[in-house]
Amino acid sequence: MIIDVHTHVFPDGLAARAVATMEASAKLPGLRAAEDGTLAALRRSMQRNNITCSVTVPVATQPEHVPGINRYVIETLHHETGVIAFGALHPRYAAWEHEIARLVNAGIKGVKLHPEFQEFQLDAPEFVPFFRAIAAAGLVVLLHMGDDYFATCAARATPRQLARVLDTVDGLRVIAAHAGGFMRWQEVLDCLAKHPRVWLDVAFCAGALPDEMRRRLFEAHGYERVLLGSDFPWVSQDATIAYVRSWRLPAALEAAVLGGNAAQLLTLA
């Protein structure tokens, strides 16, 4: 079983524009999407790579976008075979309690938050009730962590900030994207390693996360809480699977990272 916990897809009529807009805003020179960002492209990639499930994670960059995105998630993506659709939330959307209930009632397993794009400070005290409600609902949060290769980084989601949130909010389960904090991996090692409610995905880590730091970090945290995540369409699923296999882990550990750990977290097995 192979499960990619970090993918993005856009409605067919919006995909080309969304990808082009993000490519134009990229901070990393020459950053281009590996795929076109449509559901059809994701399906072709999944078939090519023998992927069982892909988790799609939408971002509501503006609070008012939340209900429309979740309508697409619930009415379309949630019914696609092989797709685990997470919902969208924004802590400044006034009706976030209603949206949490709406997602739970629809059978959605998690939500995506991106403090840099959404322009909120992860550990601001005003958002504690928001995170407590997410935890109480049993939703998993896939959280962009660390610097960003698109947005101007204002250090709104650092490993230290996440550690403070976890200390305050009991039961909150987090997939901390980009190995817990893109380009802030020593801070991940210092603040998040071994935390029992944190899982680390490897989205956009190939070529950025030094091999020695990757070994130290994942061994300290425990490979049982490391997840395959590609950041499709920005990075191909092919390349991300090859990246994990290049670590040459024992077969059982490799299988866990490629899908077993995600299956357990998302109660698929």
The major β-sheet equals: 6 strands, parallel
CA radius of gyration: 17 Å
Please state the structural category.
alpha/beta
Distance between the termini: 10 Å
H and E string: EHHEHEEHEHHEHEHEHEHH
- The CATH superfamily label reads Metal-dependent hydrolases
Biggest sheet strand line-up: 4-5-6-7-8-9
The best one-word shape is: globular
- Fraction of residues in helix: 40-55%
Q: Remind me, CATH topology?
A: TIM Barrel
Secondary-structure arrangement, i.e. CATH architecture: Alpha-Beta Barrel
According to DSSP, the number of beta strands is 9
Beta-strand content estimate? 5-15%
* Level-1 CATH class name: Alpha Beta
Q: Which residues form runs of ≥5 with pLDDT under 50?
A: none
The structural domain count equals 1
| Mean pLDDT across all amino acids | 94
